[in-house]
Amino acid sequence: MNRILEIRSYNLKPGTRTRFHALVNEQSLPMLKRWNVDVVAYGPSPHDEDSYFLIRSYASLEDRQQSQDAFYSSTEWREGPREAIISLIDSDTSIVIEVDEATLQGLRQKI
Fold it and tell me: How far apart are the C-alpha atoms of 40 and 53, rounded to whole Å?
C-alpha cells in the first residue's frame, strides 16, 4: 500500500538552527506524536548551517489535510511552541509525493 510523503524544508534565520532543533525535539515532536502524526525523519540538513527538514507520512492526501488542519488549529499548538518555532523560520516549502512501503521504511529514522 502506498503512502503520501510530505517533505518539508525550512530555511532558518542565520544562527538559529540549534535552538530550532531543541524546540522540535522538546516540544514539537512530542506534540506531533500525541496527535498521531507519523514523523518519518527530521533534523538539520547537512548542506548548510541554516536548513532543516521534516518528513511526515499520511494514508492519503485527505488524511494529510485533515491531520494538519486539526493540528495547526489546535489550542495546544497555537498557545504552545508555535510562536517560538515560527519566529526562527525565514521560509519553508513542502513537497508531497507518493511512495511505496519499502521507500518509506528506507527513509524512516529511529525516533
Answer: 11
